[in-house]
Amino acid sequence: MKHMNAQVEQLLQTNYIPEVAQGIRELEQMLDENEALAAAHDDIVHRYVVTETLSMADALTELKALAEKFDKNEYALDLLLILNSLPTLYQKYKQNHIPDEIFFESMDDIRCKVNECVECKGVVGTFVADWYDRFFKLTCFAYGRFQYEVMTYEGEDFTMSSGKIFKTGDKYINMHIPSRGIPLTDEVRLASYRAAYPHFSSLFEDGIVIFGCSSWLLYPRHREFLPAGMNLLKFMGDFEMVNWKETPDDFHDRWRLYGKHAALPDDQLPCDTTMRRAYAAWLQAGNPTGRGFGIFAFDGKEILK
Question: Which of 33, 175, 185, 207 shows the greatest Cβ crowding within 10 Å of its Cβ?
């Protein structure tokens, strides 16, 4: 049986690092050449994505045991779960009349997560396979630069600049920012918001979509130490800050910025990009890190302030 499928083949024709693409092909071939492993792995894939009788959490538990039994890397088998589930997911998109463009744009997230796994773990795989459950449940989609999913706000009332009150129980469209290597320019951001708007506008009675994002990238004190004019600061400017907090003892997202170097002392961090240099200086000065949650209203064309 050949495990490489048409959807993976098409994805590999895009922006994959050649060595990563080759690594994926070798993983699929590994299944082809190991009948017992393939049978067990295929069964997990089938129960997770076809019959939907296996939760993602239980699938990953079984894959961990499978990795130990066959002396394989757990992250590699987790990635194969995602890759070999794509034909079924593709058909779900078709059945729900979701364009191919959105499918492949959403699944470009695989490239991002594999690159992160190679950088941080030295393995062609994924160490965040549970993240993909939202895609297989058809609750999260990419439109251009960002990914979007419906969420419900739970927090204190917040009065927006327009006078609208954002309150507990209100729906909003949560945004994720995959590491796609695409700069957060004004044009790129606006194009993504405009592309996402038709998918979600019917959820809001007045047609004004509330987009929200919770991320370390929205840490308000970025304005104190990042160079003026950075695209990230412009992205932050799209939002009205609902709340934020500092995490002085735990820069949880340090790996996102420094990859395999994240465990190094502050004074040894690489400074090969503007963002890395600014953060290294900030951390070496003993400053805290943090994250923020912000929202903005969008009418399909422009952000409403």
Answer: 175
Domain locations in the chain as residue ranges:
6-138, 141-248+288-304
Note the pTM of the prediction, 2 decimals.
0.94
CB hemisphere CA count around 175 (13 angstroms): 28
Asked if residues 215 and 289 have their Cβ atoms less than 8 Å apart, the reply is no
Helix, coil or strand: residue 174: strand
- Mean residue pLDDT of the chain comes to 96
pLDDT tens across 92-101, in order?
A: 999 999 999 9
Q: pLDDT digits over 196-250, tens only?
A: 999 999 999 999 999 999 999 999 999 999 999 999 999 999 999 999 999 877 8
How far apart are alpha carbons 213 and 293 in whole angstroms? 6
Q: Helix H segments across 50-185?
A: 56-70, 74-95, 100-121, 133-136
- Residues paired with 297 in a beta bridge: 210, 304
Which CATH architecture does the domain made up of 141-248+288-304 adopt? Answer: 3-Layer(aba) Sandwich (3.40)
CA gap 287, 8 in Å, rounded: 43
* Contact indicator for 106, 135 with CB cutoff of 8 Å: yes
Q: Is 264 left (phi over 0), alpha (psi -120 to 50) or beta?
A: beta
